[in-house]
Design brief:
Elements lengths: L3 E6 L6 E6 L3 E6 L5 E6 L4 E5 L16 E6 L5 E6 L4 E5 L16 E6 L5 E6 L4 E5 L16 E6 L5 E6 L4 E5 L6
Antiparallel strand pairs: 1-2, 3-4, 4-5, 6-7, 7-8, 9-10, 10-11, 12-13, 13-14
Length: about 180
C-alpha cells in the first residue's frame, strides 16, 4: 500500500511532524450476515470491520486505473473489486464472470453490484452505461441518454430482476423491478 504523508508545523518548536495519509476510501459494502462491513481504498486495500472477514486486497493500484467500488458475495466470504477501466478482481468465494479491462469505454466504470445468487454482477459507467456478466440480466441504462451529471453508483434489487442507477446530483432511476420514487 502506498502511503503518503502530510505535515503539521508545531508553532512553538517550528518542528514539522508528519502523519501518514491513507489512500481515499472509495467503497463500502455490508457483510450479508449483518455482522460488519468492508471498505475499499482507491489502491485496492480492503479493510474488514465488525464480523466481516478479510479475503484479501490488491497489492497496489492496478495498471488500468484505480479501484472505484466493491460488492460482497451473498455468503459474506468474498467480494469483487472493480477498477475505473472495468477490470474486475475477485477475493474469497467471489467468482470471475468477465470484465471490461482493455475495452474502449465512453466513460470510466464507477460501480459494481452483485446478483443475489453471487453468480454475476453489473458494472455501471459514469455515462450511465450498464454492463452485465454471469447471471446478471440487462434491464436498461442511461447510456444512450445525454446526462447533465455523472453517474456514480448502481444497486441491485433483492430479487436480482432490477437495479437502480444514481448520479452525483442524487437523481436515481430504476430499471426492471426497481421502483423509482419522486
Amino acid at each position: 500500500m502506498d502511503v503518503s504523508s502530510s505535515g503539521t508545523r508545531h508553532a512553538a518548536t517550528e518542528q514539522v511532524y508528519t502523519t501518514p495519509t491513507a489512500p481515499a476510501v472509495v467503497g463500502v459494502v455490508a457483510d450479508p450476515a449483518g455482522q460488519g462491513y468492508w471498505t475499499v481504498a482507491i489502491d485496492g486495500e480492503v479493510s474488514a470491520y465488525g464480523g466481516a472477514v478479510s479475503a484479501g486486497s490488491l497489492p497496489e493500484i492496478p495498471e488500468g486505473g484505480p479501484i472505484v467500488s466493491v460488492a460482497a458475495t451473498p455468503t459474506g466470504r468474498g467480494y469483487w473489486l472493480v477498477g475505473s477501466d472495468g477490470g474486475v478482481f475477485t477475493f474469497g468465494d467471489a467468482t470471475f464472470h468477465g470484465s471490461l479491462g482493455n475495452t474502449a469505454l465512453n466513460g470510466p466504470i464507477v460501480g459494481i453490484a452483485a446478483t443475489p445468487t453471487g453468480r454475476g454482477y453489473w458494472l455501471v459507467g459514469s455515462d450511465g452505461g450498464v454492463f452485465t456478466f454471469g447471471d446478471a440480466t440487462f434491464h436498461g441504462s442511461l447510456g444512450s441518454h445525454p446526462q447533465q451529471y455523472a453517474v456514480t453508483a448502481i444497486a441491485a434489487t433483492n430479487t436480482g430482476r432490477g437495479y437502480w442507477v444514481a448520479d452525483d446530483s442524487g437523481f436515481t432511476v430504476g430499471f426492471g423491478d426497481a421502483k423509482t420514487w419522486p
